[in-house]
Write a structure and sequence with these properties.
Keywords: Membrane, Transmembrane, Transmembrane helix. 69% of the residues lie in helices and 3% in strands. The protein is mainly alpha-helical. The protein has a domain at 2-42 and 112-256. 27% of the residues are buried.
Length: 284
């Protein structure tokens, strides 16, 4: 199965550098995030900072975990105070330490830690910085995270000629795509009915999260993994349960009605308006 899938995907141009294709994945993931957020009535300009910082932390943490797990390889390189070396007419950039730590174009990332870092900051940014309802943004964060994980693993497996990684990426990608099609098809069926549409949308997104926790954990924990990836899968299961509880509590939380807002709205007093102060004589 793994070899068949690997050969079937051989049409993907691996002659192109890995980083540009990873940039394409980044761009498509951003469009998916924007599209899902737009369905949640969020302005695209207001969510760009969340996408930027979430993916920035994702890249940094993916690189850091790769360096930690591959330190034996990095420690073999000589240290040099300049970021380049010159031998005759040939110049080598970021080849010596510590500059080699920043040569991200070598594709040195751990993608499962990247996946978890993206979800953590996506939740934190939504709830505590933007102060939005988690029930509105969980679908956007979850769908885009699965797309990024599946696509990155798929491409990396092809470049590294690792059929097992290719299969894992393909399964995550197809799983996310199929679930997204089903969810949006059902939503479209209920779209003309406001209350059933809202209830069905919330149930489907929660169902997707539960199914995603099971699928990701089963797919990766049922095969050999390095400890760093395994610990991050455990972290994803814990985070997923926390996200589900937070989602349910947010659904149960009452949304302020128009009457509540009128009650809570303070009365405005004009600065030019005379204020009458009553005294005891007037009261008598």
């Amino acid at each position: 199965m793994e070899e068949f899938l690997y050969n079937s995907l051989s049409f993907i141009p691996t002659s192109i550098s890995f980083v540009p294709l990873l940039g394409l994945v980044y761009f498509v993931g951003m469009m998916i995030f924007w599209w899902e957020a737009d369905l949640a009535k969020k302005n695209r300009n207001s969510i760009f900072d969340q996408w930027f910082f979430s993916t920035l932390l994702m890249l940094v943490w993916g690189r850091v975990t790769y360096i930690i797990t591959s330190w034996d390889q990095f420690s073999q390189w000589n240290w040099f105070y300049l970021p380049y070396e010159r031998y005759g007419e040939q110049i080598y950039l970021f080849r010596a330490m510590p500059w080699r730590l920043f040569s991200i174009w070598d594709g040195g990332f751990l993608f499962i830690p990247m996946f978890l870092a993206y979800l953590i900051l996506g939740y934190f940014y939504t709830v505590y910085i933007k102060k939005w309802r988690w029930r509105e943004m969980m679908g956007s964060v979850l769908f885009s995270a699965n797309f990024l994980l599946g696509s990155a693993l798929l491409l990396y497996g092809l470049y590294a000629r690792d059929s097992r990684v290719t299969l894992n990426g393909f399964l995550v990608f197809i799983f996310s795509f199929v679930i997204q099609v089903v969810v949006h098809s059902i939503k479209r069926f209920y779209k003309d009915r406001h209350d059933p549409y809202r209830r069905m949308s919330r149930v489907l997104v929660l169902f997707y999260l539960v199914l995603d926790i099971w699928f990701i954990s089963y797919t990766f924990l049922s095969q050999p993994l390095i400890n760093m990836d395994r610990y991050h899968i455990y972290g994803f299961v814990i985070l997923g349960c926390f996200m589900a509880i937070s989602y349910i509590l947010d659904i149960r939380r009452k949304t302020p009605t128009t009457d509540d807002q009128k009650t809570l709205t303070p009365r405005r007093i004009s600065l030019n308006q005379a204020i009458r102060i009553s005294d005891k004589k007037d009261q008598n």
